[in-house]
Amino acid sequence: MQKYRINNKKILSMILSIVLILSMFPSFALAKEKDIDSFEYKFAGDKDIYTFTENQTGYWTSGYAGDNGEWILDNNIIWFYYTLDNPEEGDKLIITYNDNTKETFTCKEDGSFENEKGEIHSYKISFEVEQSYDNQLKVFNKYPLTIKFRDIASENETFAEIVPDSKVVIADGIEYRLNEEQNAVSVNYAHPEMIGSSVKILSAITYPDGNTYPVQSIDKYAFLDCNNLTEVTIPESITKIDEKAFLNTGIEEITIPATVTEIGEYAVGYYRTIRNDNYEYLSVKNFKIDTTPGSEAEKYAQSNRISTIDKAALKAAEQKALADKRAAEEKIKADAYAASKAAVEKLINDYNSASILAKSLKIDDFKVKAKKGKKAVLTWKENEKATGYEIQYSTKKKFKNSSKINIIKSSVKTYKIENLKKKKKYFFRVRTYTQITNPTTSKTDTFYGKWSDVKKITTKK
Fold it and tell me: How many CB atoms lie within 10 A of CB 169?
């Protein structure tokens, strides 16, 4: 195949970081107040205009480096990359500012640029490129560009066209590229200087035209040399992880969803070194893949002797253990409640029974004797079931205006009453009282037994 050498004036292709350095004369101060939206460069005598705007993304071009600094594509077409240090007389630079105003500068014989007002500016335009691994060239620019150039054999025929890459969207430092069929998106490249230690790959991308496409694959070298990256979240929309996608990262454990059905060589769990001028791929020590049984990720792990963990199964086991623990705790609570309820019911039943019994108690063998000195001695048979006794006495048979005496011990079986009126008829009776704790209110309730038979005496002098 015939080789083509493109004149360095017409070749500005595959350029991705265009740095526009403006060295200005005092008159440039007014122009600097405006932000540049884009600029065009037109070589003298050329029909082609090279347009530079903002936010161009990266681009990979397969080929190999020649001996003279040129880059030779796989189809043997040769490209040159250079810095435009010496613009020629007649070259034009057209700047468009953010307010949509334009300013045209024409290159003079001394290399400076003059606008329509006669104001002089000095510009330098440089292009940054770098050679990547595996004979691929990556070009950069901070302003995207549209470059048109012609085939050497026929100046009237367009040889190629590089346009601002509308297929690429950058989110959180990751480039997402729309495929040729325009039905899905791949993770094309992650900028090491733009991403942090943790990234989350999006499951879908919405383009400026409003269309949304699923993110289905991770391209070769997508996260190459992202040394600070230690954690990545892969969505279930991903079906393919290309070879060497996560080469030379800081990841030691990765979760690969079961939706991934294709994993390339050295895709995860590897780093590479150079030995004897050749790359050597080594496995990351203690690397782990979180996957599900029977998945492509499990097969990849087995064939590469990588440890696997099934976080989903572990989580399910943890959830079951937690559920069992909660069930056991609930059973303990239920049993305790049931026991407590039964105990309370028993207490209530005991309380009711005790109160009935307390009300039924009656004093036996109750006797009263008059003693000298206006005294009376009362005796009765003690009742151990009671808490104590209540004595009531009065000069009235129906105990009107009576006096009461409480005896707080059930073991007492005699009591002396003094200071009665002499030669006066008195009526006496006694009953038990029982104090019981109420299980409902926790208060002490008092229940009185039946009154004894009434005894009467006439006091002595």
Answer: 20
